[in-house]
């Protein structure tokens, strides 16, 4: 299945890595997402910015097909998730907000298991682990049980795992939640490095304004609705704001949060 | 808020080669085996439970409970011999529930999401997980039979081979039932209750411990319940197979129940139709 190239043929350039089209979702009477539409262009780092309860995790559950898309459509590299889930999911890597590693297995066993779920044999998985962790100190700890790792290290392994099958689009749902400032910075930097090296597209869900760089694309989600979409300078200019944090506050009425007082945005 | 994107270009489908399915299925079985090895106490307790019944319960009841000559037996048999297929069923029943318990645990800890976002069809993932769990149960059954040989439970050697497909099928049916239950249960705490309401009634209201004609003598109602209990037919399928006989009625019922339970589990785990998507993960 894997031949060392990116997973799946290179699609036409005009296909976005992710297209969310008029998606709505409800839990009983409560509407979690209301007519949500946005795109993640190929090769972009797009931040899905919204406060807690905005609907980010619901949206991720829909994009990963844990929930069914009942209203609207979601396409990954052009493949409709409802009609062609296999082709769509094979191009997708995910880091969920909650930890999803099996703590009783070693790091390498976790990674090999994940690779197998994508049809990648153990020998190819080991080669891939070597590639991704070539410069990481975690390489020497592959045989350790996952439960022996710190929160930041577990998160790093989950990010490595998301890249194992060479996806074209990576989803990260608040991957720095629960981590200290140093680990947050390390994780963000690691993802940006891998994105650059692997040439994949990223949708990074966060409620922290300082995880956004000036050159990123941003989708502002609030109370289940998309309030703005575009590059940081465009959103800032459209709101007549001084920063993306200020623009976020103007859009949502919610004060922007930052992990570090000296937030970059 | 961007306008909805209309896709014009047609992406190229690649499909999945057979090797991808084999690797995936092998990976799921490998993880089950690793978990099984890491949980040695699970293996020991799975063996101790039926062995206690064999050594203590059966020894006590052999003088009280006579077993007349009923098919597939050609002669009077010891009570230990009679309950051995029931104890095999007990191993498979507990194993099936244990596997489903681990699915609930996986769902609570989030590791289930790793499985469910695999690009391979969800029915295939669930069937692979089911088969991996059944393989563990079959190993337990044959270790039990090896020990039971010393307690005069000695079908001829061909019986051990004939019983294998029956044990596999019974394991699949009970594993599929467990999987269906796991899709309905959201929390581990609730699962303990389900175990009590499923395992004990299924086990005691069956032919595992007593021949059905004896049950009929004491309670016609319980006899009817035993007759509609699929566990009864799983036990009878194994009982006949151990003596190189095929109980067609039991085979049909076990096959039918396997299809129904597995179909139900696949539907329940399907985000398009199932119950999972209606609950918050």
TrEMBL record, chain A:
The keyword Transport applies. It comes from the Bacteria. Residues 18-248 form the ABC transporter domain. InterPro entries: AAA+_ATPase, ABC_transporter-like_ATP-bd, ABC_transporter_ATP-binding, ABC_transprt_ATP-bd_su_PQQ, P-loop_NTPase. Keywords: ATP-binding, Nodulation, Nucleotide-binding, Transport. GO terms for molecular function: ATP binding; ATP hydrolysis activity. It holds the Pfam family ABC_tran. Belongs to the ABC transporter superfamily. PANTHER family: ABC TRANSPORTER ATP-BINDING PROTEIN, ABC TRANSPORTER ATP-BINDING PROTEIN NATA. NCBIfam families: PQQ_ABC_ATP. This is ATP-binding cassette domain-containing protein. It comes from Jiella endophytica. The lineage of its organism: Bacteria, Pseudomonadati, Pseudomonadota, Alphaproteobacteria, Hyphomicrobiales.
From TrEMBL, chain B:
It comes from the Bacteria. Keywords: Cell membrane, Membrane, Transmembrane, Transmembrane helix, Transport. The chain crosses the membrane at residues 51-70, 82-105, 126-151, 157-181, 193-213, 248-269. It is a multi-pass membrane protein. It is found in: Cell inner membrane; Membrane. GO terms for molecular function: ABC-type transporter activity. GO terms for cellular component: ATP-binding cassette (ABC) transporter complex. Its main location: membrane. Residues 41-272 form the ABC transmembrane type-2 domain. PANTHER family: TRANSPORT PERMEASE PROTEIN, TRANSPORT PERMEASE YVFS-RELATED. Belongs to the ABC-2 integral membrane protein family. This is Transport permease protein.
